[in-house]
Amino acid sequence: MQKRSSEPKASGRVPTADAPLFFLDYDGTLAPIVDDPTEAHPHPDVPALLPELAARHPVWIVTGRDLADVESFFEKAELLDLRLPAIGLHGMKEGVLGAGAESLASEEAVQALARMRRALPPLEGVEVEDKGHAFAVHYRAAPDVDEVLAQLRDWASGMPPTLAAIWGKKVVELRPQGLTKGTAVRRVVDEHPGRVPVYLGDDTTDEDAFEELADEAADGRAVTVRVGGGATAARYRLENPAAVAGYLRQYVEEA
Ligand SMILES: [Mg+2]
After folding, report:
1. 119-163, pLDDT tens digit by residue?
2. How distant, in Å, are the alpha carbons of 72, 74, 159, 207 from that of 109?
């Protein structure tokens, strides 16, 4: 087995797989990052490309958003008829875009989330974003970020083990423990023997999937691609959604 490293070393031309099973993150991968998350429309090449790709290979959409959010972008781009299977809320939901989704969270975790939501202290400049069976606490507008962060850490320390906290850029998200993009991807990969997982993503939570697939990626049985900069467990890297579209186009042109 090859030794893994957490160094940001992902490099080299991204290979194409013969029988790919695609996992495509939405924001930052299929859609350029924009200031207003309600305006995160797919890259201009994607509406023509995705139907071609999905006609040839299984394609899963992966997102940290609730699936209803992505459905609205797919509907505007006239992609909802593809009925693509999808993983939402960083691995907590599974469904088909345009045809419903189910939560994978336990009742115990759902109740613990509600308790933590009620226990959140009132803090100036803090905004809560509800995401179904998860919620995010944004504090970028706080007048004293360090003070608010200290209070949030104190609050999160009372969290039960059924939940996990994900600390991001001026945001902390609480969600059920043990349901990640990695666990979701492993379940789907196991349902597709003979297919090579090809996972493209730009998020911290995509790293769960890159780590899950690291052994396969090391010996060519998976292709893992980090989009954009930052340390990663992915084997390869692409610069942005335009480069992602360029990479995916090869699968359409070769066939
Ligand atoms: Mg993303």
Report:
1. 999 999 999 998 878 899 999 999 999 999 999 999 999 999 999
2. 28, 30, 11, 23
Distance CA 250, CA 171 (A): 37
* Same domain for 35 and 94: yes
Distance 27 CA to ligand 1 centre (A): 4
67 within 8 A of 97, measured Cβ to Cβ: yes
Ligand 1 is a single-atom ion; what residues have CB below 5 A from it? 25, 27-28, 202-203
What are the tokens at 21? 């099973």
25 flagged as catalytic = yes
Distance 6 CA to ligand 1 centre (A): 20
Task: State how many domains the chain has.
Answer: 2
pLDDT band, very low/low/confident/very high, at 101 (cuts 50, 70, 90): very high
Question: At 55, which CATH number?
Answer: 3.40.50.1000
Same domain, 191 and 246: yes
Among 176, 200, 231, residue at a domain's last position? 176
Range(s) of the domain holding residue 127: 107-176
Other CB atoms within a 10 A radius of the CB of residue 249 amount to 15
Q: How far is the CA of 156 from the centre of ligand 1 (A)?
A: 25
Rounded distance from Cα 168 to ligand 1 centre (Å) = 13
pLDDT, position 68: 93
Burial 197-234 (b: 16+ CB within 10 A, else e): bbbbbbbebbbbbbbbbbebbeeeebbbbbbbeeebbb
- 96 three-class SS: strand
Question: 18, 25, 190, 203: which is the annotated catalytic residue?
Answer: 25
Task: Tell me the pairing of strands 59-62 and 135-138.
Answer: unpaired
| Residue 66 · residue 93 · CB < 8 Å | yes
